[in-house]
Amino acid sequence: MKTLTKDYPLQLSGDDSPIVRFQNVTKRYGELVVLDALDLDVAEGEMVTIIGPSGSGKTTVLRMLMALEKIDDGVIYVNGEPMTHMEKNGALVRASKKHLRQQRTNIGMCFQHFNLFPHMTALENCIEAPIQVLGLSKKEACQRAEELLDMVGMLEKCHEHPARLSGGQKQRVAIARSLAMRPKVMLFDEVTSALDPEVIGEVTQVIRKLVAKHNLTMLMVTHQMGFAKEISDRVCFFFDGKIEEQGSSSQLFDNPQKERTQQFLSAVLEAG
Amino acid sequence: MFDWRWEFVWQILPRLLEATGNTLLAAGFGYVIALVLGLVFALAQRSHFKPLTFATRETVEFIRSTPLVLQIFFVFYVGPQFGIMLSPWTAGMIAIGLHYASYLSEVYRAGIDSVPKGQWEAAMSLSLGPVRTYSKIIIPQAIPTAFAGMGNYLVGIFKDTPMLSVIGVAELMHTANSIGSEYYRFLEPYTMVGIIFLLISLPTASLLRRTEDRIRKKIGLRSR
To answer: What is the ipTM of this complex?
Structure first.
């Protein structure tokens, strides 16, 4: 096991400590450096959108935070505690599977291709993990799932299998499934990219609702610049595994400072 | 030349039917062993513990690359030299169960590999543990893909039970041989054995096909 190249705090404390911190996070696929010593803090309740050209590492940020893959260097902290690592005899060592499972309960993730369990109904999709992982009774889990399915407008179809749902409906169920774990941080990985244009609105509407009514921290990767501009507290423009530029959505979209940001934005806006 | 004697057929039929029971029993027992052991092999090959993965893969390769009849002889005749005395039935079940387990492990593996990566990631993102992930998410989706192969090997193991006759398990082939050597007539017993095998194999295969479709529908996957 490789030891960490620098000193990292064993935990984050203080009232202003971020709910998510990437500290010096590096991820390589062979020779290719996908994330290059990334530092990123996200405050509780903040909505951060990540934009950038393909291959810039934006989806990787979310995948690392969900701990779907191992990082090569650095530490990710969630809720003050190290996620990718854990304390052992006063030092940080790589997280065990159990520690990762525990830490993942703080985070919910929605995927581009929904990844609903096809052999379960919408409701069963939403109660499986709350029962197995959080130890809820079936009754409690069903009640929680029904509330959430109602919020995303899918209560009527709660006994349907995913094969009988449209893309937008599947994504709304997937959002409810993640929320049923009561995560502190929600990750949206290009959740509208696989959808037909006419159903994108039903998914963005659900995200709007979450922003308005719940104090959830959210990280979103998207290609929908209009939606990103409207909803984000902060927008990060990624280029080559680094944050090239970040700022409030009006700063970044209306008055980008860096040349690469300007080029990217004019290219995507031209494409419509 | 063609001298088919019906009265001889009726005379030997009860013995053949009794032996059919043994054949079905051998196929059934052997298949259950193969199903369970095959899953163990398949999961062991996916383990992160490298020596276990390696040992299992080599064992499976070894069993698949040597003839079943040799394995049957080996378990039955070589075992006693090491103090392992097994009845023909036990030795036969171990040999045929192991043999088909190694084939079924490949079927399971293909089934598990057919489940999209996103399903693992979704299970991971919901913090489901390995046991739950396999039992509730992955295996239920792997079964429809694996089912066709599993069915083929059920028919396969049934058709391979005559090999147990070489160590004296009183199944159909063994009984037909005995009848032949008692009466010096082989046409009727062997023909009857063939017909009995056909009468069982064909309906089983068609039942399996229909069941496969039903399973796919039931778990909400498209039928092929």
So the answer is: 0.93
